[in-house]
Specification:
- It contains 13 helices and ten strands.
- By secondary structure, it is α+β, with helices and mostly antiparallel strands.
- The chain folds into two domains: about 80-160 and about 315-455, MetI-like (MetI-like fold, Orthogonal Bundle), CATH 1.10.3720; about 180-305, no CATH class.
- Strands 2, 3, 4, 7, 8 and 10 form a six-stranded antiparallel beta sheet that branches.
- The longest helix is centred in the first third of the chain and has 31 residues, at about 90-120.
Length: about 450
């Protein structure tokens, strides 16, 4: 409806009304989704403050402190960093860290992969995973104490050498009698010759051979040693090896007395024309007899191996094996962690691809190598990089397991940093430089992990 208002000279004004007319349109107001910046800053400020106090400030102060000498008053610039690459002790720590980075992550990742694959094919997989993962519940310091005991050189205390000596005793029955020697004197039938003990004159079958030995220490006398018996007349070549010493004195030299014990486990050889014709081992009472030996004259010999110390295992905590030994403890702790991560990735692999390969005739090894491992490569890389970071930061295991006498040979950067700054060196300038050097080594692997996580999220 249109109405004319005012006079005829005025322009008409149209008024639109009626039921179809609505309110006048106004610009729509922009609404913010989420809290205001002030609220977000208020919530982030405490976390940022703590991050600055615990992370940013220590890093910044360490960089600043690394530019000064041990007293903190003399500016040395990059002198402390130059010392890292010129000091022989520090170069040893870098070499050891390089060994750690090359060996430990590969071993941990490989074992984790093997364990993860095995858990899919064995019964009681949950119990197996629990046993392998259990060391993760133990702190590294406690693990160090455990393996310090495991690597004890005495087989009666150290588990590692107890296993080695048990295996050795299983395949070799020889008993070592260090410092033992033949009884000297004109009445003795034997004499020392080049570390061995041989009869002075050739002997024949039916002629008993008496070999008196002295200098046997009580701690090496076997517990199964029985009283020696004089050799009876035998048609074959036989004899007795015994400890020619009567406790409390008395007895007859060169003759078997009632209280004297035989020496079990000794190797006895019958030698003819420079060649060993037969070998025997002494019984608990020290007696021996050569079976099936042809008639003739022989020289009876106790080889030098009888007078060497019995095998006592390896010196795990010595300079040569200390780094591999500590790496073994590290693998024991972290193999379960790697297994759990890889097993999670293994469960996400499409089974259709594996079954299709098997149907096409692929063997299990081909399926594992060509399908399983490539599909697991992202998880394997994450585990590998994580282990590299952990090896660069290792401290507890080296500090606890390595004895002070071999700690310089097993030293790593983290331990050297503590030792130089707080463990008696009192050189916080060099210690701060080592801390920054370690941070520089760790940063690339941390960045690699973060980028991979971001790519997986997109």
């Amino acid at each position: 409806m249109t109405e004319r208002l005012n006079g005829p000279q005025d322009p008409p004004v149209e008024i639109t009304g009626g039921p179809s007319a609505g309110p006048a349109e106004t610009p729509q107001t922009q609404r913010r989704i989420g809290p205001s910046p002030a609220v977000a800053i208020a919530f982030l400020l405490p976390a940022a403050l703590l991050l600055g106090i615990w992370v940013v400030y220590p890093i910044g102060y360490s960089i600043f402190r690394s530019l000064f000498d041990s007293t903190g008053t003399g500016f040395v610039g990059l002198g402390n960093y130059a010392t890292i690459f010129t000091d022989p002790a520090t170069l040893t720590t870098i070499r050891n860290n390089l060994i750690w980075v090359v060996v430990a992550p590969i071993v941990v990742t490989t074992l984790g992969l093997i364990f993860a694959v095995l858990t899919e094919r064995i019964k009681w997989a949950t119990a197996f995973k629990l046993i392998v993962f259990m060391p993760m519940a133990v702190s590294l310091m406690a693990a160090g104490v455990i393996f310090r005991l495991v690597y004890e050189e005495d087989p009666n205390k150290g588990l590692a050498n107890a296993i080695l000596t048990t295996v050795q005793d299983t395949f070799s029955s020889s008993q070592g009698y260090p410092e033992a020697r033949p009884r000297e004197g004109d009445q003795s039938q034997v004499a020392a010759e080049g570390g061995a003990v041989v009869t002075k004159q050739p002997v024949q079958a039916g002629q008993p051979v008496l070999i008196p030995i002295v200098g046997v220490k009580p701690d090496v006398m076997p517990g199964n040693a029985q009283p020696a018996k004089g050799s009876a007349v035998d048609t074959g070549l036989s004899g007795t090896v015994w400890f020619d010493f009567t406790p409390g004195g008395g007895g007859q030299s060169g003759a078997v007395d009632a209280t004297e014990k035989g020496l079990p486990g000794m190797t006895v050889e019958a030698v003819q024309n420079g060649q060993v014709a037969a070998t025997a081992t002494t019984a608990d009472d020290g007696s021996f007899r050569f079976e099936g030996l042809p008639a003739g004259s022989y020289v009876v010999r106790l080889p030098q191996s009888n007078f060497e110390a019995a095998y006592g295992g390896l010196t795990w905590l010595g300079p040569a094996l200390i780094t591999p030994a500590i790496i073994g403890a590290f693998v024991w702790v972290w193999a379960g962690f790697a297994m759990v991560l890889i097993a999670a990735g293994l469960s996400a692999i499409p089974r259709d691809a594996l079954e299709a390969a098997r149907i096409d005739g692929a063997t299990e090894w081909q399926v594992f190598r060509k399908i399983t491992v490539p599909l697991l490569s992202p998880v394997l890389l994450v585990v590998f990089v994580t282990m590299i970071i952990n090896t660069l930061k290792v401290f507890d295991l080296v500090f606890i397991i390595a004895p002070p006498s071999v700690q310089p040979q097993s030293n790593v950067i983290a331990l050297e940093m503590w030792r130089v700054a707080f463990g008696g060196g009192n050189n916080q300038g060099l210690g701060s430089a080592l801390a920054i050097f370690l941070l520089i080594l760790v940063l690339p692997f941390m960045i690699m992990n973060i980028r991979r996580f971001r790519r997986e999220d997109t």
